[in-house]
UniProtKB/TrEMBL annotation:
Its main location: cytoplasm. Monomer or homodimer. It comes from Ignelater luminosus (Cucubano). The lineage of its organism: Eukaryota, Metazoa, Ecdysozoa, Arthropoda, Hexapoda. The keyword Magnesium does not apply. This is Prostaglandin reductase 1. It comes from the Eukaryota.
Length: 319
C-alpha cells in the first residue's frame, strides 16, 4: 500500500531531526527558461534545479522558526531539511521579507530573481534614455514584460516581440507597450521598420536566433544590447545549433555594445531591485501576471508549456 504524504512527513521529520535543524515544505515552485539550458549538466537522480517558496513545518532552529516562510534554491522537491542546506550553501535559504498583502509567489517573479534580472540587466547594460526606442524579445515572459514596463517608466518607446496575439494584446492594452510584433507571422523586418522608423536604440534579447539578427540589423549607431538568454536554441541539439543571419557586419558598422550577463553579478544589490520593484508596484507603475499550475505532479508539464510559450508572465507551480 502506498505510504500517505502525512506519514512520509512524520518519518522524514523524525529521521532527519537527529541531524537537522528544520524541515520545510514547498508552497510555490518556479519554472524558468534558464533551467532548460542547464538541464544537460544535471546528473541522473539529482534534484532538478530551481527556486521555491517553502514553509518551515518543523524546527529546532531559532533562525528558522516554525511557520516561517522562506525562499531557497531547493529545486524540484516537496520537502527540504536543514541538513541539506548545511551541505549545500548554494541553496541560499532566506526568510521572506514583508511585502504587505501582495502574494508570496511574487518573490519567485517580479519581486525575485526575474525582477532583479529585468532591473539590472536592462538598466545597467542598456542605460536607457527618455525618448529612445527599446525592443524586447520574449516580451510576454516573466523578464521580458518587466523590462518593457521599466522602459516605459524611463520614458522610452517600447516594441515587444512574442509569438501570440493574445500576449500582444496584454502587452499593449494592459502594460502600455507601444507596439507588438508576432514573430510567427511574416515580415518581421518590415513591421519592425514600420514601428521604429528612426531605428532601435536598445535591445533586450531573451531569444537569440534570427529574431535577434533582424533587430540588430535595424539598430542605431552606438546601440546597446543586453543579452539575457537564447530561448530559440534551448531545445536544440548542441552539436547542430540553429543558424541565423550573420550579425558581425551590423555590429561593426553600427558600433554596437553587446553584453551578456548573469544576474548573480549584482547579488550584493538584490535589495535595491526588490525595493524599487516593490515601490513601482505600489505606485501602480509596474503590473504583474502569473500563470499558475496546480500540483507538484504537474511541474514537468508546466515546464514544457513554459518553454513552448504557454505562459503569460511568470510561470508558477502551486503545490
Amino acid at each position: 500500500m502506498e505510504m500517505s504524504l502525512q506519514l512520509k512527513k512524520i518519518l522524514i521529520s523524525n529521521a532527519f531531526f537527529l541531524i537537522a535543524e528544520f524541515l520545510s515544505e514547498a508552497i510555490y515552485l518556479s519554472v524558468d527558461p534558464y533551467m532548460r539550458a542547464y538541464e544537460h549538466l544535471r546528473q541522473l537522480e539529482s534534484v532538478f534545479n530551481g527556486s521555491q517558496i517553502a514553509k518551515i513545518i518543523d524546527s529546532r532552529s531559532k533562525q528558522y522558526p516554525l511557520d516561517t516562510y522562506v525562499i531557497g534554491d531547493f529545486g524540484w522537491r516537496s520537502l527540504t531539511t536543514g541538513e541539506e542546506e548545511a551541505k549545500d550553501p548554494e541553496l541560499s535559504i532566506r526568510i521572506l521579507p514583508d511585502f504587505a498583502k501582495l502574494p508570496l509567489s511574487l518573490r519567485l517573479g517580479v519581486l525575485g530573481m526575474p525582477g532583479s534580472t529585468a532591473y539590472f540587466g536592462f538598466l545597467e547594460i542598456c542605460e536607457p534614455k527618455a525618448g529612445e526606442t527599446v525592443v524586447v524579445s520574449g516580451a510576454a515572459g516573466a523578464v521580458g514584460n518587466h523590462v518593457g514596463q521599466i522602459a516605459k517608466i524611463k520614458g522610452c518607446t517600447v516594441i515587444g516581440i512574442a509569438g501570440d496575439d493574445e500576449k500582444g494584446k496584454w502587452l499593449v492594452d494592459e502594460l502600455g507597450f507601444d507596439h507588438f510584433i508576432n514573430y510567427k507571422k511574416p515580415y518581421l523586418a518590415k513591421t519592425l521598420a514600420q514601428y521604429a522608423p528612426s531605428g532601435v536604440d536598445c535591445y533586450f534579447d531573451n531569444v537569440g536566433g534570427e529574431i535577434s539578427s533582424t533587430v540588430l540589423s535595424q539598430m542605431n549607431l552606438f546601440g546597446r544590447v543586453s543579452v539575457c538568454g537564447s530561448i530559440s536554441s534551448y531545445n536544440a541539439d548542441y552539436s547542430h545549433l540553429p543558424k541565423a543571419t550573420i550579425t558581425q557586419g551590423f555590429i561593426v558598422m553600427k558600433q554596437l555594445k553587446i553584453e551578456g550577463f548573469v544576474v548573480h553579478r549584482w547579488d550584493n544589490r538584490q535589495n535595491e531591485a526588490f525595493q524599487q520593484n516593490l515601490q513601482w508596484i505600489n505606485e501602480g507603475k509596474l503590473k504583474y501576471k502569473e500563470t499558475v499550475t496546480e500540483g507538484f505532479e504537474n511541474i514537468f508539464k508546466a515546464f514544457i508549456s513554459m518553454l513552448q510559450g504557454g505562459n503569460i508572465g511568470k510561470a508558477i507551480i502551486k503545490v
